Amino acid sequence: MGMVWVWLYSHAFNQTPQCSLAHISAPPTKPHRAPALRFLRGMVSQVTNSLLKCLLILICLVSVILNIVLICLNSNRLPKCHTHSQGTVAADHTDHSLIFADLTPKEYQMVRDYMWDQKDLRISHSATAKVSENYIFLIDLVLPKKAEALRYLDNQGLKPERQASVVVFYGEFNYLKEYVVGPLPGPLKHRDVTMEKYKVESLPFTARPVTIGEYVQLIDLVYGNVFMQLKTELKESFGYDPKSPNLSIFEGMPRGVKAGDRKTWISFFRDFSGMYIHPVGFEILVRHESKNSSDWMVEKLLYNGQYFDTIESFKQTYAAGGMQKIVYKEVSNFASLKPRSVPTGLGPHQYYLQGKRFSVKSNQVIYKDWRFAFGLSSLTGMRVFDVRFRGDRIIYELSVQEAMSVYGSITPGMMLTKFLDTSIGIGRFAHELVRGVDCPYSATYIDVYRYIDINATQLYSNAICVFEHDVGRPLRRHFSDFFQNSYGGLTNSALYIRSITAIGNYDYIWDFIFYQSGTVEARVHATGYISSSYKVPGSLKYGHQVAENVLGNIHTHFANFKVDLDILGVRNVFQTKDMEYEEVSLPWMTERKAKIPKLVENQLKTEQEAALRHNSKIPRYLHVASNQTNRWGHQRSYKLQVMSLAGDHLPESEPEERSMSWARYKVAITKHKDSEQTCSSLYSQNNIWDPVVDFSNYIKDNEHIENEDLVAWVTAGFLHIPHAEDIPNTVTVGNGGAVLIRPHNYFDEDPSIDSVDGVYFNPGSETDCEYNKMACLDKHMCSPTLEPYTYRGFEGVIKFDK
Ligand SMILES: [Cu+2]
């Protein structure tokens, strides 16, 4: 449109002066004429000039009006694109998905009020309860038992009861308990399920994550107590001013070295956006086991690589000059993501020419041959259920389970650090997605409600997005040369469901992608800030220097997906396929031998056989198969293709390993059990030495897995050796892992051949539109209708006062 305007304007402008100049120049001037005549001519000339001016203004006005009219006509030529789903897609929804739907704000409140009413439990109503109080930490959906859900979904069975899981931290009694509260909407009852789930009466109090209430007390200790004692030292070394604190904290985990410990190494960083890459060289170890925060104390200090046992000893050595002091100097914020030049351009954006070809209603998505239910758990994050292709269930559950990182460092803040994000809450930190950046502008955005850590339901607007997207490379194509000339192709238009969770420094982008070929992909990308530590002698063994005095610490990334495949029912087998070279004699010249690849197939019988460790020789093809065969007599199956460049898993000799034993295996197949719902737990991080969920126990009983309901636990990841280009942010390109869940002899041919997006032509029909919509794309063009841009993602986020 801009081009049209420019051309019209210059065209009109150039015409006007030419026209008036021509008028003035005729007749030509003759200098020997009399003065009276000259005067008369002057008069005539003045009148002509005025007329010309008027004419000029008039022409300009007409030109402007003409331009506006032309622009309007031009823009009206394109009809507005439809913004809603195409009618037939939306009509297909059912209520069945609701059994997997997250709890509603009303349900959270009912459950909370019910628990508050149980006077014997003595639960605090305070928004940020003290450690010593009894407190509801979490309310979340209890997933229906699979058998009940299948009876309901497939055989008109009763709708499974809707129930909530409630986690209560009993500060008063020194333990943790879990309850199931239901049926919703009531009348409600509660049941203590701690024994049933974890085989113990109650969980140790130190197994709980640090709550906002505890953080408030920790921050109070640091800034109100420790820093007050260190005013001089902090002022000289870091320019610290208690009136406007310029140091922020970042904590290492786990909190100690043995069960029962609650000792956290807190490192200090410049209080910039992107503080994670601004370490200042000061760390303290705080012991905070006691429920009474006045008992908490600093057990160690680290200053510029040197350790001290007490605040006093640090002060004395500092005063005596017995150490290498860090001299404060102002540093600009190289971590800032504010663009260094004012953004000017706009990249390409996709929009829906004929309305959305998918539909989202409640927690159900329908897209072409696909349909599924979705939810977002506060702890484990995004999940989908009852995933069907052309009516047949392929996957009962596909869910994010855990994200873990193990760090290396010479300084304590990062030295023993092993982050297990489920304990912090993967879904909890799924903040609002930014239109046009985090997801395509025209995606469908879905609000999420959560109840975790504060005694209220929180709304996270637009925390999930769903969109159809042309991934920019054809799903398939062939140009036929030689004998039969033809072209056949299909755009790779796929449906994405996405959430992004910003847990501290890292942002994980979680995608489940549904392709027209019957494939599902579960994928994670990491972006955000690396964790870093202050560079001291010996640091470079554990990473690279990435800024002045800043070491980017080496670490692993592991993410686990649960893939509960049901291939034509729940009775499945696990098979592997690979190749080997076989020496054969050539049938037509038997004296000549050749090595040729042959197929090697196997069916694994037990859970331990099917627990495939990362560094072992894993067959390339891993299948969950049905006993039914396709048209060609082969077992109909889905293949798991893991894309991962994971680092080494923590050696099993380490006491913390059992909390993350799921990461031993690239793929592990277990027999489905409702009691084996997750590979990790809320308590894995803080009870890392004595975990209540140790995944390796799921396969210890070595059950048979032939013709059983099978679950694949897939671990993907990457080794991260931070480098200069991780500053300021780690980019998504190349940083992540995924699993593809692909049909393999499941169909008789590629189902995408039925796609209505196919393009085909041959010589003579290149521009024929019937089988080539691209040749007539101009007939389908429409002008996009953009939803108004809004963002409320900062509302209600945690912000601590120092
Ligand atoms: Cu990383």
From TrEMBL:
<keyword id="KW-0479">Metal-binding</keyword>
<dbReference type="Pfam" id="PF02727">
    <property type="entry name" value="Cu_amine_oxidN2"/>
</dbReference>
<dbReference type="InterPro" id="IPR049947">
    <property type="entry name" value="Cu_Am_Ox_Cu-bd"/>
</dbReference>
<feature type="domain" description="Copper amine oxidase N3-terminal">
    <location>
        <begin position="208"/>
        <end position="305"/>
    </location>
</feature>
<dbReference type="GO" id="GO:0005886">
    <property type="term" value="C:plasma membrane"/>
</dbReference>
<feature type="domain" description="Copper amine oxidase N2-terminal">
    <location>
        <begin position="115"/>
        <end position="175"/>
    </location>
</feature>
<dbReference type="InterPro" id="IPR036460">
    <property type="entry name" value="Cu_amine_oxidase_C_sf"/>
</dbReference>
<dbReference type="Pfam" id="PF01179">
    <property type="entry name" value="Cu_amine_oxid"/>
</dbReference>
<dbReference type="GO" id="GO:0005507">
    <property type="term" value="F:copper ion binding"/>
</dbReference>
<keyword id="KW-0801">TPQ</keyword>
<dbReference type="InterPro" id="IPR015802">
    <property type="entry name" value="Cu_amine_oxidase_N3"/>
</dbReference>
<dbReference type="InterPro" id="IPR000269">
    <property type="entry name" value="Cu_amine_oxidase"/>
</dbReference>
<keyword id="KW-0560">Oxidoreductase</keyword>
<dbReference type="InterPro" id="IPR015798">
    <property type="entry name" value="Cu_amine_oxidase_C"/>
</dbReference>
<dbReference type="GO" id="GO:0008131">
    <property type="term" value="F:primary methylamine oxidase activity"/>
</dbReference>
<dbReference type="Pfam" id="PF02728">
    <property type="entry name" value="Cu_amine_oxidN3"/>
</dbReference>
<keyword id="KW-0812">Transmembrane</keyword>
<feature type="modified residue" description="2',4',5'-topaquinone">
    <location>
        <position position="506"/>
    </location>
</feature>
<dbReference type="GO" id="GO:0009308">
    <property type="term" value="P:amine metabolic process"/>
</dbReference>
<feature type="active site" description="Proton acceptor">
    <location>
        <position position="421"/>
    </location>
</feature>
<keyword id="KW-0186">Copper</keyword>
<keyword id="KW-0472">Membrane</keyword>
<dbReference type="InterPro" id="IPR015800">
    <property type="entry name" value="Cu_amine_oxidase_N2"/>
</dbReference>
<comment type="similarity">
    <text>Belongs to the copper/topaquinone oxidase family.</text>
</comment>
<feature type="domain" description="Copper amine oxidase catalytic">
    <location>
        <begin position="349"/>
        <end position="753"/>
    </location>
</feature>
<keyword id="KW-1133">Transmembrane helix</keyword>
<protein>
    <recommendedName>
        <fullName>Amine oxidase</fullName>
        <ecNumber>1.4.3.-</ecNumber>
    </recommendedName>
</protein>
<feature type="transmembrane region" description="Helical">
    <location>
        <begin position="51"/>
        <end position="71"/>
    </location>
</feature>
<dbReference type="GO" id="GO:0048038">
    <property type="term" value="F:quinone binding"/>
</dbReference>
<dbReference type="InterPro" id="IPR016182">
    <property type="entry name" value="Cu_amine_oxidase_N-reg"/>
</dbReference>
<feature type="active site" description="Schiff-base intermediate with substrate; via topaquinone">
    <location>
        <position position="506"/>
    </location>
</feature>
